[in-house]
């Protein structure tokens, strides 16, 4: 029949149309820069710095004026001083050196501290997993954590948020690190150091995602018959040994489906954060997901006595003004107790706008939002970061620092 279409050609045509349109949209959005990463991360006010470093505002102002080695910052409108993320790291180092903050507010590993590895994990889509991962990474990086993000999702949305597109730019990705050797071509996996890219956010490096990760699943299935190479569940953990001394935290963003790569991340991780949307259907599917996750862990535990430092749930897309969601939150906290984070990832127009412009919250100008709108989502994400920070500190044998009012 003459009216029928060849699906592969039509779908590829649509793909090209969307790619071209998105490129044009990005150029318009970030003009006069060509790409988002051409522009540095915005500077932060003294109050924002005091919050990030958990130091009282008035105390920080005094330290900035009296301690040797403090960066000067930049005076902007209203005679207010602002600091770049790099300068915030300098401030933190001076405060630690001078004994103004202890190790509980200086998130660097001491000798004997294991590298923290957090897998953000849920097999259900639409739970704001990537949005949570990206924002959490930036909040923790601003607090001083040296972070390596590993994007295991073939859609590579996490990488996109940092303006890294391995497939389009012909760059190495997590697939190149995990792949199996090809006897025909002689090609094999590359060191993870060859795939790591710095981002425009200080303290965050990334191993980008790629559509090629679908090939890893096929290769792994074939490896069971051939019996070649490192077992699939150890490939991520073994790759990370090369960079164990360079990062305090490795954060895995995972796809919303079970895969060999997800199992490998679960094997490598020391902590797990499970995002859960505030909807009854999501809660109904939670039991099934947890059963499957338990089965996955049983597979992992056959190879190693695997122990986690923590497993926590976080409610996402939450609106306390919705009676049904409020009731659902109460239900979960009653039954899961302390396993639920105290802070929820709230539903917010600021996050919706951030998603549309591909900007996490800390890249947005607070002045472009109603103050209460910005403060509400900032407090939400900051609280989640506080709780994850506390879990890591406990794993390192440190007493978490309780934030004081400014």
From TrEMBL:
InterPro entries: AAA_dom, DNA_Partitioning_ATPase, P-loop_NTPase, Plasmid_partition_RepA. SUPFAM superfamilies: P-loop containing nucleoside triphosphate hydrolases (SSF52540). Residues 119-292 form the AAA domain. Pfam families: AAA_31. PANTHER family: P-LOOP CONTAINING NUCLEOSIDE TRIPHOSPHATE HYDROLASE (PTHR13696), PLASMID PARTITION PROTEIN A (PTHR13696:SF98). This is Plasmid partitioning protein RepA. It comes from Mangrovicoccus algicola. The gene is repA.
């Amino acid at each position: 029949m003459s009216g029928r279409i060849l699906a592969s050609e039509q779908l590829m045509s649509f793909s090209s149309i969307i790619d071209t349109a998105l490129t044009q949209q990005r150029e318009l959005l970030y003009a006069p820069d060509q790409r988002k990463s051409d522009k540095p991360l915005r500077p932060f006010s003294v109050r924002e710095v005091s919050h990030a470093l958990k130091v009282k505002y008035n105390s920080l102002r005094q330290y900035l004026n009296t301690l040797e080695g403090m960066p000067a910052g930049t005076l902007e409108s209203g005679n207010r001083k602002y600091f770049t993320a790099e300068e915030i790291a300098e401030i933190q180092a001076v405060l630690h050196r001078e004994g103004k903050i202890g190790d509980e507010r200086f998130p660097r590993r001491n000798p004997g501290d294991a590298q923290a590895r957090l897998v953000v994990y849920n097999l259900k889509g639409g739970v704001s997993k990537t949005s949570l991962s990206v924002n959490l990474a930036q909040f923790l990086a601003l607090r001083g954590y040296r972070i390596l993000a590993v994007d295991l999702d073939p859609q590579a949305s996490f990488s996109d948020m940092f303006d890294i597109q391995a497939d389009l730019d012909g760059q190495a990705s997590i697939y190149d690190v995990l792949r199996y050797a090809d006897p025909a071509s002689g090609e094999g996996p590359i060191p993870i150091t060859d795939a790591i890219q710095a981002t425009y956010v200080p303290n965050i490096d990334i191993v980008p995602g790629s559509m090629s990760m679908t090939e890893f699943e096929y290769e792994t299935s074939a490896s069971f018959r051939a019996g070649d190479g490192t077992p699939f569940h150890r490939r991520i953990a073994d790759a990370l040994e090369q960079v164990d001394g360079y990062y305090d935290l490795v954060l895995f963003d995972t796809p919303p489906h079970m895969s060999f790569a997800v199992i490998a991340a679960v094997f490598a991780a020391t902590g797990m954060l499970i995002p859960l949307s505030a909807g009854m259907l999501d809660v109904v599917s939670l039991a099934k997901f947890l059963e499957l996750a338990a089965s996955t862990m049983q597979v992992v535990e056959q190879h190693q006595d695997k122990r986690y430092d923590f497993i926590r749930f976080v409610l996402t897309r939450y609106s306390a003004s919705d009676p049904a969601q409020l009731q659902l939150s109460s239900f979960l906290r009653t039954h899961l107790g302390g396993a639920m984070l105290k802070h929820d990832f709230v539903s917010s127009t600021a996050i919706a706008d951030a998603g549309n412009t591909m900007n996490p919250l800390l890249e947005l100008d607070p002045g472009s939002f109603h103050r209460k709108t910005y403060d509400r989502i900032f407090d939400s994400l900051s609280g989640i970061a506080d709780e994850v920070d506390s879990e890591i500190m406990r794993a390192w044998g440190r007493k978490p620092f309780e934030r004081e009012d400014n």
